[in-house]
Amino acid sequence: MRFADLARTFDALEATSSRRELVALLAEALSLAADDELQPLIYLCQGRLAATFIPIEFGMADKTVADAIGVAYDADRAAVLRRYDTLGDLGLIAAELRAARPSGADRETAVGVLDVYTRLHEIAQASGEGSIARKVELLAALLREVDALGAKHLVRIPLGRMRLGIGDPTILEALALAHGADSSLRPTLEAAYNRTSDLGLIGRTLRTDGPAAVAQLTIRPGNPIRPALAERLGDAAAILARLGRCAVEPKFDGFRLQVHRCGDQEVRIFSRNLEELSAMFPEVTEATLRLPSHEAIFEGEVLAYNPSTEEFLPFQQTTRRRRKHGVEALVAELPLRLFAFDLLYADGADLMPLPYTKRRERLAALLGDRERDALALAPAEVVAEPEELERFFEQAISQGLEGIVAKKLDAPYQAGARNFNWVKLKRVSAGRLQDTVDCVILGYLYGRGKRAAFGVGALLVGVYDDERDEFATVTKIGTGLSDEEWRTIRERCDKITAPQRPARIFSRIEPSVWVEPQVVIEVLADEVTRSPMHTCGMRESKLGYALRFPRLISFRSGDKRPEDATTVREIIGLYAQQGRRTA
Ligand code: ATP
Q1: pLDDT at residue 105 above 70?
Q2: Hey, which residues are catalytic here?
Q3: What's this model's pTM, rounded to 2 decimal places?
Q4: Distance from the alpha carbon of residue 253 to the mean position of ligand 1, in angstroms
C-alpha cells in the first residue's frame, strides 16, 4: 500500500462527522493492507509506531519539525513558524509548501506504508549527540518523497497530533468488518484486547491465523492488562444486599499501578491508562525484584506515605512523581508505598479466572511479611453486616483515605470491565453527587466581559458511551475556574481544535469551537437532572441527563484517556441512586 493512499484515508477520517463512515473507511484501509503491512498500519492509525504501552518518543518539538519542513521544501524556518502562528497546524503548512513546489500536489509518489513506518522508527531511534540534526534530516528526506496530503499527515505523527478521532473500540469494530465477520466476532476481539492491550497484535493474528488464534492470545508479562473497575452503590446496606458477605479494602486515593515482573532482571510498571511509568518508581521495581516469583503481574495503588507518622499524603503529592527528572531526589523526599490489592498472573499461570479469595491468598503469600518495604498488602476484612462495613469505612476515612472498595468473594478478575465485582463507597457531602465525574472537553463557547480575554466563556463537556465509542454532552462549565485554569484550558484546547464536529461527538449544542475529545477533567456536581439539551442517555430515551452546578476539581489527562472517562451508563446509575437517596 502506498503512503499516499493511506494519507487519503486519513484525510477522509479527519473530515467525516459520521461514526459509521469512520468505521467503514478504516475497515477498507485495513482490508487493502498486505499481511506484513497490517500491524504497522494499525499503529499508524493510532498515531504510533507500536502498541500504546510501548514508550516510543520521537523527541521532536514543534520547532524541530518546522526545521524539517523548511529543509525539505527550501523554506525559511522563521517563515514556517510565522505561518504556524496563523494556521496552528504544521501539517497544513507542510501540505501548502509541498503543493507549491513545481512537482506539487498532483505528482503521485510511490513510497510505501512499510517504508514510511520503518523510516519513522529510525527517526525515533536516533539518539545521543547530533541526534536532533539527524532527525531533521531524516524527516526532511521523507517529506520530499510524499505528496501534499502525505506531508500533512506525516508531520503530525512525530508531533503526536493525528486528529483522526478514532478510539480503540472503533479500530476493533473496523477489524471485524474488514475480516468480513458479523458482530459475533466482537467479544473475541474485545476479550483479546482486554488481555493484551495490543491492537496491532490482534489485527495481525486475525489476518494470518484467524479468530480461533485470537481467542488463544494469552496474557503475557510486559503487556498491560486492561484494569478491572468498580461500580458505585449508595450505602453499606445496598452493598451487602448486592454482594452478600464480601471483602472490604480501603480505597486509597493514589495512583493505580500494574506491576509486571518479567523474569529476574526486568520490571515494567503501567498506569491505569496503560502508559509505561517504570522509571518513576525505582523503589517499587527494587522491591518487586526481591519477590520470590520470577514472573508476576499484580496491581495496587501507590501513594505518598510518611512511614514515621503513618500518614497518607494527598493525591497531588503522589503525582509529583509524574515527571522525568529528579525522581531520585523525590524517592528520598517523598517515599511511596504500593498497597497491592490483586494478583493476576504468577509464574506461567493466569490467575484471573480464580475467585477473589484465592487470588488474595496467593498475593499475601507472594508478598510475605514486608512491613518496611515499598510494597505492602492492602488490608482487607470480610464483612457480613452493614455495621461491620460501616466501621471499616469510618476507619478508612479517619486515616485520611477516600472510602472503601467492597469486593465479591467468588468473583474472577474481569479485565476491562466495570461491574459489581468491585463496588466503591466514598464519603459524600450533603447536596453533592456521590462521586466526582470524569468528563471530556468537547468544545468551548466564547466568553464575554472579563472572560473574553481568555476567549473561553464556558466549556462543553461530555461523558463516554462505551457501547458506541462516542462522547455525549452532559453539561456546560462556566464558573469556578481560576484565571490560570481558564488560560491553561484555552491553551490545551487550541492545540486540538477541530474544524467541524468530530465524528465521535454526539451533541445537540453547537459550541463556538469544537475540540478533539482528549482532555479529561474531574468534575464535582450537585446532582444529575433530566435534560432536553444534553445528549447523555439520549440514545436510550428522548430526554438526556445533565450535571447540575458542575465545577472543575482537577485535570485527569495524566492518568485517564478520554475512553476512561465516566460512562453514560454510570451517569444513569448516579441518577437512579440519587433518586433513592432523596426518596
Ligand atoms: P476514582 O475516580 O473514584 O478514583 P476511577 O474512575 O479511577 O475512580 P473506579 O473504578 O471508579 O476508578 O474506582 C476504582 C479505583 O480505585 C481503581 O482504579 C484504583 O485506582 C482505586 N483503588 C484504591 N484502592 C483500591 C482497592 N483497594 N482496590 C481496588 N481499587 C482501588
Answers
A1: no
A2: 251
A3: 0.85
A4: 8
